[in-house]
Amino acid sequence: MSKGLVVIPTYNEIENITRLVRNIFALQRDFDILVVDDNSPDGTAAEVASLMEAYSGKLHLLSRKGKMGLGTAYIAGFQWALEREYGFIFEMDADYSHNPNDLIRLYNACNRDGYDMAIGSRYVKGVNVVNWPMSRVLMSWGASKYVRLITGMDIHDTTAGFICYRRIVLEKIDLSKIQFVGYAFQIEMKFKTHLNKFKIKEVPVIFTDRTKGESKMHTGIISEAIFGVIKMKFKSLFTRYEI
Question: Where is the signal peptide (predicted)?
């Protein structure tokens, strides 16, 4: 099962999704795509549906009733993938902050080099972020340092959302036990992968802030990450942490 599936959650990404889909299908490595759309009022799901005939059997759409959080969108995508014969499952943003060409590098880290999780890392070699204000760079970089300190994970970019999972990782983790629905979901998935002693590789990438559409970042996401990490670590030390 060497087939790869790229899971892309969307909410109001009509300005980006068509170009992204076409770019991924133009890569030399063959990937399938699953778009998980949370009932985008801008017609993102309809746009994806209009492309499906041209990419029959390769482009898939999972439409949900409303905006239920990034984490639940990915979990729905992971469960969809595990019901099918995909050996490698990817997380990727729809806004072009992640370069589609880097999918191949993440895939190679898992398929060729034997890692179980490959992270597209902004911070493993310096700070590789484009078009972010310094305040946001410092907040993101500081958050990753904080998470690394609290959890003990040897990962520089703990909040990264550009990831390749080997199928066995998602089969091992009990996805029904995932607690976080926002960006802290990214931390929790890495922590559970770490606790299961899977091999993790950080692949340096350049992160470019979106040029079209609106950011989904808000203060509740930051709060969830800060306080959720402490709770997550505490449970892993003093209780049987569900993995």
Answer: none
Helix (H, G, I), strand (E, B) or coil at 29: coil
Tokens linked to 29: 């490595």
- Domain ranges for the chain: 4-238
Sign of the Cα pseudo-torsion (175, 102, 132, 158, in order): positive
Q: Which two tokens stand for residue 28?
A: 């030399």
Sign of the dihedral defined by the CA atoms of residues 116, 239, 154, 130, in that order: positive
Contacts of 159 (CB under 8 A, 6+ apart): 140, 143, 144, 147, 183, 186, 187, 225
**pLDDT greater than 80 at residue 118:** yes
Give residue 146's pLDDT. 86
- Is residue 190 a contact partner of residue 117, using CB atoms and an 8 Å limit? yes
Partner residues linked to 201 by β-bridges: 118
Look at the chain and count its residues. Answer: 243
Q: In the prediction, which pLDDT does 19 show? A: 97
At residue 140, does pLDDT exceed 80? Answer: no
- 4-238, superfamily in CATH? Spore Coat Polysaccharide Biosynthesis Protein SpsA; Chain A (3.90.550.10)
pLDDT digits (tens, 9 = 90+) for 44-54: 999 999 999 99
Q: What is the pLDDT of residues 151-192, one digit of tens each?
A: 889 999 998 999 999 999 999 999 999 988 877 899 999 999
